[in-house]
Predict the structure.
Amino acid sequence: MPFSRIIGQDGPISILRRALATGRLAHAYLFEGIEGVGKKATALALIEAVFCGREDGCGTCPSCRKMAARQHPDLHLLEPDGAFIKIDQIRDLQKELAYRPFEAPKKACIIDGAERLNQAAGNALLKTLEEPPGNALIILVTAQVSGVLPTILSRCQRLHFQSLPEEAIAAYLTENGIDGEPARIAASLAGGSMKKALEIGKDTALGDRKQFLERLSGLSLLEITPLFSAAEELAADKEKAMELLELLTSFLRDVLLLKGGGDGIVNADLMPLLEREAGRLSQTRVMERIGHVGEARQALLRNVNARLTLEVLFMRLAKS
């Protein structure tokens, strides 16, 4: 993928283009920013340009075709094995980087999820970052820079990737077959992430959102079984639970806007449900709910028991 196909990241891409043009490419980069804004795509585009020998990959030479297929022998991709990137993975990578390149001017690797390097793996990586073997290019990618070891941060050139504008996301969704209202809603709910927008834009995702919000609005402490059932079902898929809690926060924000007569409502397709909640909840109660959802999200991020966290949240939301 050439740089020209990456959306909304002109800043970091211009820095990389200048480095390529002047021959001053750093040996280690850290690309940071939320999920789904083009960090890994930019890393691949940079490596493609280096391997191609141009300021942007041509897309047609054998090297570029191998990069497009992720089959270039001098490209190495490293991701977490389970919850973490482990020391054995780093040692295997170090062995690969120690060999001479097969075809390209240098070897290159992308470490995706750098915040998930465990302590031993991070320490093992430090010397490689300081003195890459054979002038290798190492690119670390993270959506949670606070979780990356400070010693690793200090040895990389950091590039920040911005959240994408809603207009750019909506235009991309429209070009890729998600038209009209679903594209607008997905772009608004995505929080600047193209990856999230594509997931939300699916018909099933929007349907799940509506079903989830309607189900929550019907919870009652007088009927505890449906409440516990909802918590059990959602706890089975933590990633989906996090996404739905983000959507719930957006919905509650819209309730506040509706009560205050403000513009910018995102979930306009759920207006009857918004009006019902705005009519029965006070502004203070809506703010309390937003706080409860935020606490639950933080608990899930800390790997607190998901089912218990959701049961507590749903009991709080069930109060009128």
Remarks:
- The chain has two domains: 3-160, 202-318.
- The mean pLDDT is 89.
- The first strand starts at residue 28 and ends at 32.
